[in-house]
Amino acid sequence: MASTNIKGIIFDKDGTLYDYVQVWAPVINNAVKTIFISLNIEHSEKATSQLYEIIGIDNNYNIYKDGIVFNHHKVVRAFFKLLGFCFRYKVNPFSFYKMMQKLLLRPADMIKEQLDLIDFKPVQDLMDRLKKNNIKIGIVTNDTTASARVCFKMMGITDDIEFLRSKESNCRKKPNPEAIKQFCNAFNLKPEEVAVVGDATSDMDFAKNGSCGYIIGLMTGNKDREGLIKHGAHIIYDDIKCLNNDKRIFSGD
């Protein structure tokens, strides 16, 4: 790993700026209950456990790292997992998929409720410190622009974000490095001057594909430490607060 000074940093959103499970477990629990009732699926413990495992988080905050919510980029695999569940429990796949989309892709109100319970002062302090060190701040997320901006507002970091690429942005999605190239072009940076912070292996691949100088994995997503290292993380931290002690990022302090 080169020792070039970091002049720009790109964060993922969900699972990076906040703990994914803490926010999403109640949302998923509500979604699973609604799906079983609305589609008249036999509400057995086995069926419920299987659906939680497919999605990736259960009602006891347990994580299944191969779940759909942690692997947005593996669309085909997710489709076959859901299809298998539908055949097993005699559910209309179209109705099931449509309801899953409605409950998991746009749960804005429930997400707001969960975010409201979190103290974002450490994230605000980190962003302030990055700006004081003239480090450009970007977010690259699979979320929609509107939803991302609502989250930034609730976190109190709206004015700190200088670059945003979301679901609707005109660039290829992670792990394709196009957003990294756009970030570098926007601020006249070299990839080796950019750090990427994320919680998923796709974030690590994204950074590696973009030849970024510093790749940071966080344990606030699916907690797959081995996977993060295998996919290129230079360092692993428990959560975003730990970045405040990173001497590579804050070498100018």
From TrEMBL:
GO terms for cellular component: cytosol. Pathway: Organic acid metabolism; glycolate biosynthesis; glycolate from 2-phosphoglycolate: step 1/1. Pfam families: Hydrolase. The keyword Transferase does not apply. It comes from the Bacteria. It is an enzyme of class 3 (hydrolase). Belongs to the HAD-like hydrolase superfamily. CbbY/CbbZ/Gph/YieH family. This is phosphoglycolate phosphatase.
